[in-house]
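Posting here for the record, re: magnesium ion.
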Amino acid sequence: MPLCYFRPREAAHDFQVLGWVDTTARTIVPIDSSLADLLEMPASQRAEQIRDEVASSDADIPFDDAWLLPPVDEQEIWAAGVTYERSRDARMEESQTDDIYDRVYEAARPEIFFKAPAYRCVGPYEPIAIRHDSRWDVPEPELALILDGRGDIAGYTIGNDVSSRSIEGENPLYLPQAKVFTAACALGPWIMLADEVSNPRDLTIAMRIERGEATVWQGTTTTARMHRSFDDLIDCLFAALEFPVGVVLMTGTGLVPPAEFTLEPNDIVHVEIDGIGTLSNHVRRLVPRKRGR
Ligand code: DO4
Ligand code: MG
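Prediction output follows.
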């Protein structure tokens, strides 16, 4: 059963509790530990801690009385790029300096970038955003690894690495502006613990984009098409950084809609990963911000 962060519907806006989800009964059992607490401990202790806290909890909250939140608290969110052939090809099309994508696809060192702090992530059914100064925008559905403080995989969730293709395409040095902005990172709906996902290297990832009554794009891939091992990505992330309370690593996209597609406000993006669940978010356009507001 998965772990989620949630807020009872009547609770204050900044209130969040970790819970163990019973997907059959459609209820959530609140537990005392935070995700940071659990990711600081070794895997064997973590499993026991979750078991004990679920057994001693006396509450049982129906899904309908809870908001699901992004399943993170103090963790940073990092992302790998150009880990699927489709991502390499799409970026070579959009860029004026296309060979850098081919070179990174083949290189020993993967592309890894900082995507968001936890507080900037959105959860299920919250809006994701596109920039007001971008004209070509896409969702990037990705398997996200929940890593503990030692770099071991504690679980999996779904990530959406919303990106501006026009800004990245103009100049690869603009990557942080193409990737890092308000509501550019969605995570959820919950964390499936690692020992409950038997085939993480062959999970189907499906994305469907709705506009009004129509499906304007859909596609599927599988994590079997990923060109890198999880260990290569994790080793690189941990090579010169410490993450005592754990970290989230999105593993790159294998689904890129064709060049003529761009996201529009009110589109709804559904990302489903086998054995994990579905993450759905609608799209809003950011308004220009002025300093000091
Ligand atoms: O090189 C740009 C980022 C690539 C990326 O985010 C992906 O492949 O998912
Ligand atoms: Mg990506």
